[in-house]
Amino acid sequence: MHSYRKLTETLRAQGLAMDAAEAQGLVSGLVCVPDGEPRALLQDAFAQYGLGREEEAAVVGALLELYRDTAGVLAAGMSEFDLLLPDADEADVADLTDALAGWCRGFLYGLIEAGVPDLEHLGGDAGEIVRDFLDISEAVADDQGVEQEQLKALAELQEYIRVGVQLVYEELRGAAAAPSGPLH
Question: Does residue 31 form part of some domain?
Fold first, then answer.
């Protein structure tokens, strides 16, 4: 299983501000769209960061393993898919909120990189979930609430994201398998 801390350290060592949550979101978005070879998708997704050859190889190598694991888990069904987030015992509400928002930003970027042309007009349940993820990607911690209540709300949001990703995966993969099923 992948470690939030270890993957975040790997990404930061290569000069990226991205954490493991955002990276897993990106990879999950790429997995949901059934086009493209994983290594090429990851290389394309990181081309804009201007990484050197060694840095890109390290990032793509780490994320290729995550891609394959994520693809396997999503193909098997909902019960095993978990989000890579900071440990709730070590992170505060602001860190967890930022991680969930980053996860969603990564997921949306992954969908775009994989070829979904217009996220805001994506149809069906996938479209509704993606629009929710657009809202979540802009979330900031509320410093006015009771921490226990906020943690409970974040746990519910995490579960929604987890289940939502599975539904987006199934809908986009199902649409691609259908003879006339568009992705938007």
Answer: yes
